[in-house]
């Protein structure tokens, strides 16, 4: 076997001593833990209604935050309950009467799932309606909600910034 020169031995020692240190993951895990905790704490403070691209909500300047309730969305083409399609507006316009039977069935079904609520107590509901829907359609939905014992009704609107004085 051949013997190494002095320079080769010195370079070998130098490379052994100056190897890259391994990545320390403990501090990185601490940072991510703090970040996740921060995001969890701050995300529970905000309450938002589900967004729907097919809706243009009316404007409002209220400061009261919306509560989590059952949501009826009235788009330009259909009526949705909790994001599930109930009826087309074209079908609804051709129906006679002041109520919507398919909507009432869905509301009764959803109310049956919460058995801890007193049936004599009115339930909460939020209506998200496009700003261009007819009042006749809104009246039919309100009548149907009242028949299903949803009497605490709120209308969703887009909050506009208040003017600073």
Please explain how this structure is put together:
This protein is of the alpha/beta class. The protein folds into 2 domains: 6-43, no CATH class; 59-159, 2-Layer Sandwich (Nucleotidyltransferase, domain 5), CATH 3.30.420. It is built from 5 helices and 7 strands. It has helices spanning 6-17, 25-43, 89-94, 101-112, 135-147, and strands spanning 59-60, 70-74, 78-81, 84-88, 124-129, 152-155, 158-159. The strands form 2 sheets. It has a 5-stranded mixed β-sheet with strand order 4-3-2-5-6. Strands 1-7 form a two-stranded parallel ribbon. Helix 4 crosses helix 5. The longest helix has 19 residues, at 25-43. The radius of gyration is 30 Å and the shape is rod-shaped. It starts with 5 loop residues before the first helix and ends in a 6-residue tail after the last strand.
Walk me through the topology:
Layout: H1 6-17, H2 25-43, E1 59-60, E2 70-74, E3 78-81, E4 84-88, H3 89-94, H4 101-112, E5 124-129, H5 135-147, E6 152-155, E7 158-159
Parallel strand pairs: 1-7, 2-5, 5-6
Antiparallel strand pairs: 2-3, 3-4
Helix pairs in contact: 4-5
Brief summary:
This protein has helices at 6-17, 25-43, 89-94, 101-112, 135-147; strands at residues 59-60, 70-74, 78-81, 84-88, 124-129, 152-155, 158-159. It is α/β, with parallel strands linked by helices and 165 residues long.
Tally of individual domains: 2
Question: What Rg, in angstroms, do the CA atoms define?
Answer: 30 Å
> How many strands in all?
7
Biggest pleated-sheet summary: 5 strands, mixed
The number of helical segments is: 5
- Measured between the Cα atoms of the first and last residue, the distance is 90 Å
Question: Would you tell me the overall average pLDDT?
Answer: 77
CATH class of the largest domain: Alpha Beta
Helix/strand-derived category reads: alpha/beta
Query: Helices and strands, in N-to-C order?
Result: HHEEEEHHEHEE
Shape: rod-shaped
CATH topology of the largest domain: Nucleotidyltransferase, domain 5
- Low-confidence regions: none
Percent in strands: 15-25%
Helix amount: 25-40%
Strand order of the largest sheet: 4-3-2-5-6
The CATH architecture term of the largest domain is 2-Layer Sandwich
